[in-house]
Amino acid sequence: MKRCKPLLATVLLALGSHASAAPFDQPAQALDLALGQLARAAGLQLVTNPTLVAGQQARSISNAPDLQAALAQLLAGTGLQARIEGDTLIVETAPRTATLPAVTVSATHERGGRTEGTGSYTTGSTSAASGLNLSLRETPQSVTVVTRQRLDDQALDSIEKVFEQTPGIYHLWTGPAVGGSNSSAYARGYRVNSYQIDGVTVPSDAWALNGWGGGAALDTAIYDSIAIVRGATGLLSGAGDPSASISLIRKRPTHEFQASVEQSMGRWSQRRSVADVGGPLNAAGSLRSRLVAAYDEGGSWSDRYQGYHSVAYGVLEADLGDRTMLTLSLEHAR
């Protein structure tokens, strides 16, 4: 046992030879020379690409407590890094890191699919297909939304004119332009019978005047948008048929006072007037109302015909709490 002790001491001395050179001190000099000197002091073999260190000046090493601290001082500002693998000191290019400028993401709260005042021909969301307020991209059916801006710009003052501008809808309209007699729409080979007003399913015969499907009674002056969902919607909205579903979203009271009057004229002595007024009824704005009225009259291609059509719509909203609102509305057409 006495003969083994000197041999063991010699091995431990060899393994600890790197620590015996600390602290490290070196003057500023060429980087290749400084790395060679430090590697020899630490008892390591230096491996690097000469082109990486050529022409670079190394900083001085002052009282570095260990080899890692010495390398950090030596390679500062050179774009290089060092790592030790066994008895080898490897110097290589340090990975480049970049700090990108801050990105600020902002968004506005969706207004429940309302399009009035946006000036847009599309909508951010609609609940016509699924009952959920989803974007058009998230809606799992073919949907066309005719916004208030498009209704105004293209003078789509009746549901028949909206059908004419909707892909996938075949519209059958017979009779005079004002107070039309027969009106119906077809999609995918079936007649459209499913209508929704503000998300509530209403049979088309509920407002029928003279038409098969009641389309002659629908004046777009009172609507914020009209969405046409092609295909069956029964599994998602609770009612529907294989053709399509028509979702009518009526105008809502505004938080600020607004009023407008429109007058238009057309062929066959047709005249149309629309009045729209709404706003808050109290100082807090918790009670709001809106009234919309439209009147059409005129002749037709048929001699000695004179027809008229009128619609009036009123709505009252009251905020009963932070998350509770009472809405009362009345619509009359003739």
TrEMBL record:
This protein's UniProt keywords: Cell outer membrane, Membrane, Receptor, Signal, Transmembrane, Transmembrane beta strand, Transport
Entry keyword Zinc: no
Gene Ontology molecular function terms on file: siderophore uptake transmembrane transporter activity
Membrane topology note: Multi-pass membrane protein
Localization (cell): Cell outer membrane
Chain ranges of the Secretin/TonB short N-terminal domain: 44-94
Coiled coil residues, start to end: none
Any GO CC annotation of this UniProt entry: cell outer membrane
Entries under InterPro entries matching the protein: Beta-barrel_TonB_sf, Plug_dom, Plug_dom_sf, Secretin/TonB_short_N, TonB-dep_rcpt-like
Top-level taxon: Bacteria
Signal peptide, first to last residue: 1-21
Family: Belongs to the TonB-dependent receptor family.
Identification of the protein by name: Secretin/TonB short N-terminal domain-containing protein
Originating species: Pseudothauera nasutitermitis
Source lineage: Bacteria, Pseudomonadati, Pseudomonadota, Betaproteobacteria, Rhodocyclales
